[in-house]
Each structure stands twice: as C-alpha cells, then as structure tokens.
C-alpha cells in the first residue's frame, strides 16, 4: 500500500511483514520496522499502539481521492493510491493444516459489514467471503483457493477492552473486572453487578428489556460505548476521583502576640496585631517562638473587641485563642495557613 502525505510531498511505502497475534502486526514503513497493536477500529476511528505509544486516528471527511483525518489531535490530509482488495487477498491466506483445511484471516482490522457466504457453502478462489469497512473504505476478504466453508468466526472487542482497562491501573487504583463476555446484557449480569456494587459496561451491545427493568429496580448503572477511547476516558476520570488528593499549603498571614489575657471558661487569649496578610477563623495555625515552631493546631476563637470575626486583615488588632493549647507568650508569632486539596488525575 502506498499513500501520500500532502504536506511532505513524499510517497511512503508501507508493508505488512508478519501477523504476530490476532490484533498485532509487524509492519515496515520507509525501511523501518514497527510493531503495531490494534485496540479498536470502526468506520470513523482507529486506536492503536505503535512501538508502545498510543495513537488515535479519527476520520473527518473525504473529497475525491483526498481523505481528511485527525491524528493524535492534529489535522492531516492523505491522498490514497492503494489496491486494498489485492493487498488483503495476497496476505490473508492461512497455512494449511494436516487435515487439508486452511484459515482465512484478514490482514487489516475493520468492521465486518457483510458476510457473503454461509457455513457449508462452496467457494472458488477469489470469491468474496466477507467485506470489511476500515476508515470509510470497504475491503473484500477473498477465498485463497477452492473449497467448502467450515465456519466463520469474528473476533470481538473484549480482549482489547480488557487490555485497555488493565493499562489504567496504578499502584493506588485500578479496574476490577468481575466478568466479561460477548452478547447482550442479561439479568444474570444485573444480579452480579448488584451483589458486588459494580457498574456494567456494554460495548456495542444493549441490555434486554428484563435486564433494564432489573437495573432500574436495583439501581445498577449501565454505561454504553461504541469507541474504546471514550470508555477508557470515562473510567480514567472515575479512577482519578478515587486518588488521594495532593495537599497544598497556602500561607494566609502572620500575627504578633502583644498581650496575654486570662478569660474564664476559655483560658488564655492572645491580644495580637496582624503584621502580614490576614488571619481567618477556623484556619490552621503554627505558634513560632524564637524562630522555632512549638505548636501546630487550629484557632478556636477570633475576635475584634468582643465580637466574633471571620477574618482580620493586616494592621488590625484582634484576639485569638488556640484549640486545646495554652502555652502562649508575649512576642510569639502566629503563622496562619490553609490546606488546599487538589484533585489528582491519571
């Protein structure tokens, strides 16, 4: 297959060298070899890992022979000059087994849009067995030789999804898959999810009527997806919410103790002046004596004269009392700060 990237005025030869597994291939581009693993593909989107790096290609539109894509967020126009049917036919033949049977596999990933034969049907070499759609192009998968069709198997997306979910795991959080399978969502799936407190993910499938009713009654969440990236993106956000937040200290201000008063039922109250920034009721404080922190806690009271105050700004006098702490002296400095919780993301 040859294609031309419009901005570079360069024709690049590409070739499938070897099929390593069901969705993994060794390819050659411009004399360089790469390993590519297909995660998901349909008529508009292809997601794959190339040499351990994730990439996403989204089809936009086409004009005559030019096709427009979004590749990893960047726009690209491609002029195609390919004979995909011939390429697929050349590379799709499986090796013969001792029984004389052979396996016909497509060498490009795609969505099966039609199956043109049935089990037991006689085919001639070159007859179309099924048709794939990949990035808006339909490609025929053809028989390699005369024979009888013994069975047709179309691999689903379960393994690709499980692999993508496994890659989301960290040392702190991860997705625990209790059950996976093919076919629609049924009552047994709802029962399992309800018993374990899990949600159900349907990829290009739906729940039957009875399962939907059970889900509503048992308050079981079902999420439907048709693109793996959307699925993993949503779960990544959910897992991010489970991560312990990063704690950031924000300094509010300083106050100097000028007097110490004894108040009944309260204990010692510091008569202060705010020297920098502000102090706030309910904020955290440190008591500093001779440049050494001797206590860290919270303010129990903050007053202006006899009235409670929410905050006191620089240059203003106030009264402060510490929660469960009495060892305060004239000349001590009070450092007032808040702890901000910052959500983390995967």
From TrEMBL:
Residues 93-172 form the Lipoyl-binding domain. This is Translation initiation factor IF-2 (InfB, MTIF2). It comes from uncultured marine thaumarchaeote KM3_46_G10. It comes from the Archaea. The lineage of its organism: Archaea, Nitrososphaerota, environmental samples. Belongs to the TRAFAC class translation factor GTPase superfamily. Classic translation factor GTPase family. IF-2 subfamily. PROSITE patterns: BIOTINYL_LIPOYL, IF2. It is found in: Cytoplasm. InterPro entries: Biotin_lipoyl, EFTu-like_2, Single_hybrid_motif, TF_IF2_bacterial-like, TIF_IF2, TIF_IF2_dom3, TIF_IF2_dom3_sf, Transl_B-barrel_sf. GO terms for molecular function: GTP binding; GTPase activity; translation initiation factor activity. Signal peptide: none annotated.
């Amino acid at each position: 297959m040859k294609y031309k990237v419009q901005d570079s005025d360069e024709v690049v030869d590409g070739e499938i060298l070897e099929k390593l597994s069901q969705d993994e291939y060794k390819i050659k581009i411009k004399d360089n070899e790469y390993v590519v693993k297909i995660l998901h593909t349909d008529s508009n989107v292809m997601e794959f890992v190339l040499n351990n790096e994730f990439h996403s290609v989204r089809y936009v539109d086409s004009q005559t022979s030019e096709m427009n894509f979004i590749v990893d967020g960047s726009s690209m126009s491609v002029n195609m000059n390919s004979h995909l049917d011939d390429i697929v036919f050349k590379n799709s033949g499986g090796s013969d087994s001792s029984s004389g049977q052979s396996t016909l596999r497509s060498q490009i990933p795609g969505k099966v849009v039609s199956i043109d034969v049935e089990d037991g049907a006689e085919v001639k070499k070159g007859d179309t067995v099924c048709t794939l759609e990949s990035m808006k192009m339909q490609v025929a998968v053809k028989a390699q030789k005369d024979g009888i069709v013994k069975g047709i198997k179309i691999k689903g997306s379960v393994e690709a999804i499980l692999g993508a979910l496994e890659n989301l795991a960290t040392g702190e959080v991860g997705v625990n898959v209790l059950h996976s399978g093919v076919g629609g969502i049924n009552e047994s799936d709802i029962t399992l999810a309800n018993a374990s407190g899990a949600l159900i993910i349907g990829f290009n499938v739906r729940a039957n009527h009875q399962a939907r009713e059970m889900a509503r009654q048992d308050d079981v969440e079902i999420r439907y997806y048709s693109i793996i990236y959307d699925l993993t993106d949503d779960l990544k956000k959910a897992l991010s919410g489970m991560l312990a937040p990063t704690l950031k200290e924000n300094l509010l201000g300083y106050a100097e103790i000028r007097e110490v008063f004894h108040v009944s039922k309260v204990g010692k109250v510091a008569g202060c002046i705010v020297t920098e920034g502000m102090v706030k009721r309910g904020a955290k404080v440190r008591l500093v004596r001779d440049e050494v922190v001797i206590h860290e806690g919270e303010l129990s009271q903050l007053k202006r004269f006899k009235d409670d105050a929410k905050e006191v700004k620089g240059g203003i006098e106030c009264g402060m009392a510490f929660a469960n702490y009495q060892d305060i002296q004239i000349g001590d400095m009070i450092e007032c700060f808040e702890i901000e919780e910052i959500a983390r993301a995967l």
